[in-house]
Each structure stands twice: as structure tokens, then as C-alpha cells.
Amino acid sequence: MPTFVYMTRCDGCGHCVDICPSDIMHIDKVTRRAYNIEPNMCWECYSCVKACPHQAIDVRGYADFAPLGHSVRVKRDEEKGVIAWRIKFRNGQKDMDLLAPITTKPWGTCIPQLRDVPAPSKEERDSELLFNEPKYLRLDDGGLNTLKSNGLKLKEGVYY
Amino acid sequence: MAYETIVEDNIDILVCGAGLGGTGAAWEARYWGQDKKIVIAEKANIDRSGAVAQGLYAINCYMGTRFGENNPEDHVRYARIDLMGMVREDLAFDMARHVDSAVHQFEEWGLPLMRDPKTGAYQREGRWQIMIHGESYKPIVAEAAKKSADKVFNRICVTHLLMDESKENRIAGAVGFNVRTGNYHVFKSKTVIVAAGGASNIYKPRSVGEGARSRVVCALVIRLGLRVADQRRRQDDPDGEPHRTGPVQGRLRSGGCILPAPQDLHPELPGRRV
After folding, report:
1. Domain ranges across chain B
2. Is position A43 annotated as part of the catalytic site?
């Protein structure tokens, strides 16, 4: 399902060029609009469709399973924290509006800057714990599982 | 067109690859090295790169010790049976005992995890897997990495790691190129975390015909003479789906560094320095 661009909606901002993992969304040098330079190499990942601020990019299904007339549209909104899909079948029998959350918190605000949190002590550095452990392991007072705490022994080699 | 050579010097920690593993590594590295210079080199764009980039509606491995569901040794047993005994149990155990804290942090960052309405525990869809609204799984974790790293180089494909000529058995950085401009990038770094991924299911005893992985991560380190400890499975995904090595591995790797310990050097490879 390679992408294509509605030239009249595209303003050449380049968000799709930035995000495309396959590096095939380019800006046409003459028209200054984005286009898919190599539809065969499209991953159909929808990254550019979601990144486009003008909903100028659409995805065309292959004729064998999704003949012309269908559409799979998406709008991702970080501010509202939702993603909305509209899936239309060409026979008109199905027209689905799907809404799902993409985040439960205001975008990006609940991730701490680790440069500013209290630095780990020497004791912590020498331990086997990662950041936020042991607290976040179980969100109770339990510590890190070890072979000893779980009454286990490590046997050498391959066995059944 | 002439290509430029761009040198980034004085890096303390270079992370090659910004999938879920690399982003997790950068995050964890910032905590343990708060004043260090952390740089990420990623061949696509950090917001949408790696195997969960396009979204994943599940976290494939969650112990749920908090809800009394599984202990790490249960997962080791599963992995051992699944792989006919050929598994590094120490690594599997270590991954399993840390995985829950990563998931709990994701929830705090805003990743929508589904809950079982009756029990209040995370909604299961199998013994190990939990259900999430994961369209922005990667962008959320990428936010954390971008906050943690000093610099993120997008579109840089790292091709070789560099060893230090003056100090024995010491990494010196990495080189790569910009996939878009063709410019040559040199990263001089004291430590390198290789999270290039692409190695899951390369070797899997119970199936054939799969494994279209590029094994970039192995390709990078094998040339230095490192022995790849466990390429048989992804540690975090008992379902064996061909994707990421995962945030937990990234976090674990960031605790140490990937410099070859002498005993880990392969005797037949040119990188051997013992």
C-alpha cells in the first residue's frame, strides 16, 4: 500500500521527508511538493501519513486485495492524545471510525530529565539495580529477584 | 558532489541505533552518567525507527510479579523449553527480573496500558503478553531518549566500530555515513553501546525459513572480535516475533559497556587482542 501525495494539499514542509524510515519521501525540485520516489520500496508504515500536518498523504492499496474506491485515513493528534482511523470499504458496506488513545499524559511532560534527578550513590552504582529500581520493579517494598532470593542455582551447560 | 567528513569529538557514550533498545540505553545512561556526553546515531529517524516504530499494541513480555503472575524463573523455564534447552539462562533471568520496571516507567510516561476491569492488573493476552494502546509506543520512548541525549544524529548508518591504536583492547568510536547526503561521519567516543539490532531469530532451532534479519548488531561487533553471547532469541519476546531486542536489553547494556573482555574475544578473528 504505497503512499501518494495530494499535490494541492501539500505545502512542501518536509515532515514526511524527515520521518520516512525508507527515505523515499522526497520534495520535487520543480513543484516543491512531496512525492514518493519509489513506491515499490514503501513500507506502508503510515509514518508520513501521520506526520503530515495537512493530511495531504494517502495510501493506495494494491489492486488485488483493495481495489480502487476504498480508503484508510488516519489523524494522529499528540495534543489530544488520540489517533483516529477512518476505514471505508468500496462496497459501502463498511465505514469504520476508530479512535484510540496514544498517550494518557500531556505529550512529553511526564518524562523526567535525568540530568536533574539526585545522582546515584556509590552504593547504587555498585549494585545490580537500574534507574528507579527497586521501587519500580513491583511498586512495593520488594527487592530485585536474585538466584539466592528465589532459591535457585545456575547449572552449567545445556540440559533439559 | 564532494562529500564532507564530519567529526563529532569528546563523546563519552555513543549509542549506535535508536530503536527501543538504543533509546532505553540512552535514557539509562543519562542517569548513571549525568555529566557525560551522550550521542545517538540512528540510520532512520529516532521518532519512527526500530521494529515498534509503527506501533505495537502489546508489550510482549511482562512478568507481572507485582500482580502475583510470574517470577523470572518461570520465564527462564519457558525460554528453555521453547528453545530446546539452548539458552543462556543467566541472561534470560537477568532480563526477566528487570523487565517490569521498564513497563511501569512507560506507564508513568503516558503509554496507555489496558487493565483487566475485574482484577485491575494489566490486561493479558497470553501468559507473557499484555495489551496496550501502542500507536505511539516508540515516539514516547523516543521522547525520553531525546531528553537524555546531548545530540541525536538521524540518518547516520554506522558501519564500523573503531579500536584505539594507543590503548590496547579499547574502543575509540565509530564511523558511518549519512544515508541521505553521503557525508562521512566520525564519532570519537570513550564508550560505544551497540544497539543496532536486526538480530532476532537469526538462529532459532524450532523453525526454518524465517529470520530475514540483517544482524547489523552482530556484524558491527564481530569484526572487533567479540563473541556474540546469545543470538538465539530476543530476550524479551517469548513469542519470538521478529522484532526488537527491547528496552530492557538497552537498559541493561547501558549499565556496562560492550568492550570486549579478553575471554570474550574469538580466537580466530582478526580483532583478537589478547
Report:
1. 5-264
2. yes
